[in-house]
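Run log, item B.
One chain of 590 residues. Sequence copied directly from the ordering sheet:
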Amino acid sequence: MRRTTLLLAALLIAAAGALGGCVTLPDEGPVRSVAVNDTGDGEALVDYIPPGPERGSGRVRLVDSFLTSMTATPLSTRVAREFLAAPGGRGWDPERGTVSYGSQQLVKGPGNRFTLRLRDIVELDARGAWLGDPTAGRGYDYPLRLVRRAGQWRIANPPDRLLVPRAHFTSQYQQFQLFFFDESARVLVPELVFVPRGRQAPTLLVAALLRGPEPELRDVVRTFLPAVATPEGLSVPVSRSGTAEVPLGREVLDLDAGRLRRLFAQVSWTLGQLPGVERVRITVDGSPVSAGGSRNEVGVDEWSEFDPAVVWAATDLYGLRGGRVVTLDSGGEEQVSGPLGGVSLGLRSVAVDLMAQRIAGVRADGRRVVESDRDGVPGKRPTMADVRSVYVGTDVLRPAYDLYGQLWIVDRTATGARLSVIGPGAPAQTVAAPGLTGRRVGRFVLSRDGTRLATEVRGARRDELLVARVRRDPKGRVLGVGAGRRLAMPRPVGRVEDVAWSGPSALAVLVRPTSDTSRVLAVEVDGSSDPGQDLDVDLFAGRAVQLVSSASRVPLFVGTADGRFFGLSQGVHWKRAPIKAGLRALTYPG
């Protein structure tokens, strides 16, 4: 049902072996350094309970063992707390985040003070969201003070983070999606997190969902799970028959039917990513909460009306032939009956709203944007009078419609890009978009759920890909766009030729590594993608200039400069698509 966007896999045995090697190194000394390699790609999970402090252990060995204790599988900090000076590890808060490191170094300072140096790091926040490397390659230096307790060394000031080596992270953690709602409560919105795989995953995902959206996502997403509904000692067991039981607090009983439906949708879509979970039962004090009627359990495949891919949207292809709009479906190609199909306007790009009822086009000079109904009036020949001019600018990129019917326009002016949004029957509203406004923008795409704006920004040596969040009011009207977050791109990529959404939380990026080859890269919107990752397809032998994709379940195409299109055959090979050559500006609605 759901696509897990990124699976990071390695052998836990490799991690245990690397950590086991640490124990054999000297217990004392001014410097102690270990490189932690990411090896193996197995998926088997192995329970591992690390040993506690050894009696008489030296200071370096104690720190080593403390780091090893944080690799307990399933995840547990019980043993790790035994290495701390405060009884029960009181005051230590590893739930504030996770740091995965590629190498570690323990440097002795004066007295019983040490510095734990972690390099090649990746950090997750408290919920498991990817932060990348906030240190820009510098890594972390954690001061450690060791004290004696009952004649044994203990750590007095542990870092308030879970510290795990890279091999452990790649073998034990997996990327999942937490599902919240957009501000209008019309569509689910995925937020990516990493949590340990295995039997703990259902509980950890529900716990993360109950934390609610982060403060910076205010006016972007909302939740229907009451924040105070987290029971003490939360546990989400999954029965042999595939039913996940989610215990929540009594606040759930106060929700009306609409809010309760959305709560069930959030939980079902989140847990539906897990293998073996087929149904969800929500309980309060052990009693099931009805999902409507007499149903106490719901299938995770329900609630499709809230699909972030907006499955109700039209899926036909649209393009330009001779400057006029045509549509393609299984029956072939034909001109649309409305003005943009019947009147020769010399369009260079086109956008279609999600219901395929309205079409916007950019005139050949790039200055004027026009709009009309898709279909004409039966028996009436369309004329220029049926075409509305909605925007006049300098050099307008291909527009985009959001699910509220608003038209998004990026105009490349002499002072850089300018973003405008045009509501149905309303004038253009200029919207500030840090990272886009005033920059050299090559293209932009808006996510189907309307909460993410991806922008390709041209640089002197290298193109950048930015993703920003869109703030809206409960009616879907745009309040603003946040600062763009730069996504990691592989080196070298050459130029970015095009960008499209390949899923609700993933982008497909068309790049040109050489003058006569192209490649489609997969990029996660949280920046966690492997810089060398692609869509596991052959290198396209030729120069592709257009990428045609959508967040919904439709084919992906690349187009060449001479108007030919190629689709994926069996998901791995490029094959000529049955589209008549010469078609321009091919696009899906949106």
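Observations after the first pass:
- The longest strand covers residues 140-149.
- The chain has a mean pLDDT of 87.
Flagged for discussion on Thursday.
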